[in-house]
Amino acid sequence: MTEQVYKLVEVTGSSKHGYQQAIENAINRASKTVRHLRWFQVVETRGYIEEDKVAYWQVSLKIGFSLDNPDQE
Question: Is there a contact between 55 and 15 (Cβ–Cβ < 8 Å)?
Answer without folding.
Answer: no
